[in-house]
Amino acid sequence: MMYDDIEKILYTEEQIKQRAKELGQQIAKDYAGETIVMVCILRGSCIFFAELVKHIPNYVELEFITVSSYCSTNTSGEVRLISDISKPIQGENVLIVEDIIDTGYTLNYLKKLLLARNPKSLKVVTLLDKPSRRLVECESDYVGFEVPNEFVVGFGLDYDQKYRNYPHIGVLKKEIYSS
Ligand code: PRP
């Protein structure tokens, strides 16, 4: 069972849902009267995305984009576009939804890519921020939780494609990823 691979829980499902609600309410306030194009970064942010959008009563369009880090973002910083959003975003309020900012390479790439399309505004919301791992400067407008430099999984975050369905944010046991 995947539960046996978890060292400890950092944030429970309940705490994450509460934080998503708070973030949603803040976003709704900041974008009052505006339509938002919310961009889900597949695959990690899909569960947070689904939770967050429920708390934003604005008119919202849901878009999906898939990027992949080439080998390891840690070393190369190379990010590839696998599949793009479905519509032009010129003149739109675009909000990127991430699960975690680690080195910053993914978000840096995405911000450049989407800014070049001349949106009215571009902001970022991330569930987790791990600033201690940053290799390129990268800021998020909204942050759920700042996390220490530990191997976190669950609520969409994976290790080797596993644990995305773990309902909480947990720290993976060292023997799982070091073996
Ligand atoms: C993870 C995560 C972020 C990115 C953050 O995605 O979902 O998008 O890494 O890391 P960075 O700040 O070092 O770029 P990953 O490439 O593992 O794909 P996934 O979303 O499918 O898990």
The count of strands amounts to 9
- In the CATH scheme, the class would be Alpha Beta
CATH topology: Rossmann fold
Coarse structural class: alpha/beta
Number of helices: 4
> Could you give the order of strands across the largest sheet?
4-3-2-5-6-7
Residue stretches low in confidence (pLDDT < 50, at least 5 long) are: none
Which sequence of SSEs, written as H and E, runs from N to C?
EHEHEEEHEEEEH
Over the alpha carbons, how many angstroms does the gyration radius reach?
16 Å
Spatial shape: globular
Query: Termini distance?
Result: 18 Å
Largest beta-sheet details: 6 strands, mixed
CATH architecture field: 3-Layer(aba) Sandwich
Q: What is the share of helical residues?
A: 10-25%
Hetero groups: 1-O-pyrophosphono-5-O-phosphono-alpha-D-ribofuranose
Features:
binds 1-O-pyrophosphono-5-O-phosphono-alpha-D-ribofuranose, single chain, 9 strands, 3-stranded antiparallel beta sheet, Rossmann fold, alpha/beta
Report on this model:
- This protein is an alpha/beta fold and 179 residues long.
- The protein has a single domain (14-149), classed as Rossmann fold.
- The protein has helices at 13-30, 46-53, 105-115, 174-178, and strands spanning 6-11, 36-42, 60-69, 79-83, 93-101, 121-129, 142-146, 152-153, 169-172.
- Strand 2 (36-42), helix 2 and strand 3 form a beta-alpha-beta unit.
- The model has no long low-confidence stretch (mean pLDDT 95).
- It binds 1-O-pyrophosphono-5-O-phosphono-alpha-D-ribofuranose.
